Request: fold
Amino acid sequence: MQDREIERIAPPRREKRATRGGAIRRTLRRSATVLGASAACALALGCAPLEAPTDSLPDTPARMSGIVSALEIALPYAQDEAAFASPAARSEISAALRELRRNASALELHAGDNTPGFRFFSRRLADDANEISKRFGAGSHDEARFLLNELADDCAGCHVRLPDAREHAVGAALTARFADSAPRTRAKLFIATRQFDAALASYEALFAQPDQSASALDFGGELQEYLVVAVRVRSDFARAERTLGAFAARPGLPSYLAQLVATWRSALVELTPYAHAATLIEAREVLARAEELRRFPADRATLVHDLVASSLLHRALARGLASPDETAEASYLLGVAELRNDPSRGLPQAEAYLESAIRSAPRSDLAREAYALLESQTLLGWSGSAGLELPEDVEAWLRELRELAGLGAARP
Reply:
């Protein structure tokens, strides 16, 4: 395939960050284009609205291998500002970024996974790879470095959706380049390259270090990241329960965290029968139990229940559901679960799941409920000290979804 930009159908980026990186993300979000309803519907339903490139298309593992190979070259350079901007390295980095963009674009357009989660993450990966290459070529090295260092999050978010019991050697060379990096960095790279046992072991070693603050491990997201891999990917509830048991024995554990860990341990035991389930009915059961436990909207006591339910929903969507209404319900419930458990809005796939719910069952009660939640989250994401001003493409996207939901005229 020739190295060229591929126009893609994608809703605008809506995450907002109060950092320099946030300004970069907001620029990406404003530059994204929402195309017409028929093309967007084709994306939601898994059709191929774009003309396929003319070259032969390797399978998905080959594309993933190409992405990792490109990162093996570019990502180590990105750890050093001077090295990344060095004229001597420009040709090598440029070639690697072109390969990254080429493989990410092909993966987005032609992979066989048609679930809303894969569509979100493959689109995000392709967009980010394209922006990294463009910004590096334009000499915007700081912005390119920022996005490149975040790229592993795109891969990791996609890889933790479904069970995977295999060993993957493709990323071993990449992670070996970061042998001296911080444990958190290595753990995330292990997830991004599907080395899940190594990721779990890295987190467990981190939790055992006495100089690591228990509260920092909680608020930094490491505990939740560990549970995501153990529950969704490895379905190893017993290992997660043992790890939390050892964590609970740490001296000086804050009371709030001791209570949470005890609740999570009990939930892992209670929900073990669901470790290998994959139906919408079972997901409803787990979520109903979570509602009984939840004391207030942001209560993290139900984290394990939400993770188990989201795992069941991802599996159900991957296997296929009997009707558009069931697909819409599964997507909606996934969106709700993600909103509860990604407070930083670092990877806003919740919006993609809510949009999928609307498109799967337009003009239904559930579509209207999904739209109301999506609209509120979008307005919240764009609010700030300067007030609320939605970009034109975001307004158009909301207007289209509002009409699909059967809510009539556009929002005033």
